[in-house]
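Subgroup meeting minutes
Present: P.N., E.W., G.H.
Scribe: E.W.

1. P.N. recapped why we're keeping a running log of single-chain structure predictions: easier to compare across weeks, and new members can see raw inputs and outputs side by side.
2. G.H. added today's entry (705 aa).
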Amino acid sequence: MYPHPPPPLPTCDYYIGIKRNEITPTRHFDNRLRICRPFLATMDELDKKMMKPLTQDFIEGCRKEYIPIGMKTKMKKSVCKTYNYATHVVSHILPVVSTIRNYKFKSFLINDIIAGLTVSFMQLPQGMGYAIVADLPIQTGLFMGFFPAVCYFIFGSSKHLSYGPIVVISLMFGSLMEIRFKSTEIILDSANHSEVSTLSTSSSETIFLSEEAYAKERLMFAAAITIISGITQLVMSICRIGALIKLLSSSIVSGFSAAIGFIVAINQLKNIIGVSIPRHSGFLSVPKTLFALCVQIPNCHYPELLLSLVSIITIYTVKSQINERFRHRLRIPVPIDLIIVIIITPISHALKLKENYNFKVVGHVPAGLSTPILPDISYANDYISDSISIGIVAFVYSISVCLIISRKEGYEVDANQELFAYGLTTMAVSCFGCYTPSGAISRSSVLVGCGAKSQVGGFVSGLSLLVMIFFAGPLLKSLPICVLSCIIIVALIKMMLEILSFPKIWRTCKSDGVAWLATFLAVLLISVDLGLLIGVVVGIISIIVRTYRVKAVPLGVLSNTNIFLDKDKYPSVTIPPGVVVVSFPSPIYYINADIFREEIDKRIKNMKGINVYPNDQMEETSQPKVIIDCSGITFIDGMGAITLKQLYMDYKTKDSSCFFSNVNEKVISVLKASKVFNTLKYAMYLTTYDAMMAAASETTDNTHL
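Output recorded in log:
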């Protein structure tokens, strides 16, 4: 029994009338047509029936397929639709849901485990070295290998991004730490015989802190910077401005990377030669650091220098001659960084390098995780702009790595989704003694090379670091700091070699070369964040200059064709007498509108028409007819529309004509919005050849658009 009686079936003539578009169906019969599937499912069958009289048996067959939709069915469909939408939203916010749902354990798990373990072996010494660059405790580098990897596994969508510490962000944190705690000194409080420190603030008073409180102060400051940078990334994601990455050309990124490599390497030289120098920041910090190193060369600590040279040569040789040369044969690269740490640490402990030879060592590294803290933004009130810069730079580096690897591996990455993941991850790790993480190209390349299939590879590397945090930390007490500096310097060699790409960039495009050089020098001599900003500004200015300095191109038609070529490059092309064809390969907007008009007038003044049809006798006119090929004009603004109208009206008043060809839809829409289209529409043609024929025959009655 149906909950309500079915509506009467339409007649055969009704169906035939609808098929032949002779009858407009009512809503009542529309529903019947939708559910009479045997009648309407296959058009071939329907056409066959149209050729024969429709019988009542066929109509009865349609009746059997009619099942009225009851309340239960409607509720089921509504629930299914709601479930699908909720699943889509959850998968968008938490990509780990779709990762686990689609994970193929048999074919993916082994590769992900091998890749994750390899990255963890690589990240253990690098993380400690980056913590030194960031001027934070050694254990912070270990935490940076666990918390960001696990959080990104939950929120991230890239299959091969290794999210954790990188040298650029570490350097920016180290600079802020130096500025914030520049005048801090550890002194001995004679009253209670305990170490205390004095902290200079923006005010004139001096605050006395215990050593533990001083360390907590530094971590709270780092947490405040981190959460502000995470909020910046989250707001950028909400505002859908992930396309900001497009402002950074490859030349800017190359110059930025080269400068960062040199800055970090120069700052690590003090540990290599075993001297102490003041840390400089701000304008001309790199030359000041180099000068201080040169002054301290006579005081070089030769045992540390010797160990550093041996370590650098060993690490570089294995990476370049074994890992790089035999990367297609090796299932996993040789973890030479970890091997060096494992070999040198017990030797340092046995020989007592700190006591007997005055080596600087890592010292006590507490085992286990730190107590979660709640970041307080007030600790970074004076560093809001620096925190925002760190968030933007971290996003730029991460999304660059994502795009490089995703294009290589054949999957897509949404910049705004990734930005959302970065923001949530950064805000989460700020509570666990970490600083702003980012994507590392070296570790991500290792994940790809080891055959990682999903985000599980990064998750495995994080779990491996967790084990090392609990058990390996105390064992690293005797590790010389110079070894960590050697690991960092070798890892930076590829970044520093980016300087070799400058000659090629300069030869390819001078404006890109200028942007590269401006970014490199600004980062090297001023600061990291301002240097990147200067590079972006120079890149934008170079684009504007290129559109400002565009020159109009005279065109001519190739004989017996409708192909137009540059008349300066192909002198054999011709045009009818009294006609000038000019192309302007640039947008027309308020900056270059005057240049456009000047270039058109200049070309018209310099050109002379050549008759393409020798038998035709065309009278020379004092003012030639002008055809503007608009194929290179990608867009215009209001000023550009007015300029086109003025050009048209000026030639009209001179008893001449101006035609426009190959005008795209964006330009036409602006012309219509600015009320210029009605003036120019009879002078517009689909092709330049049509415009030339109209100009030659003086046929301007109808538009060809």
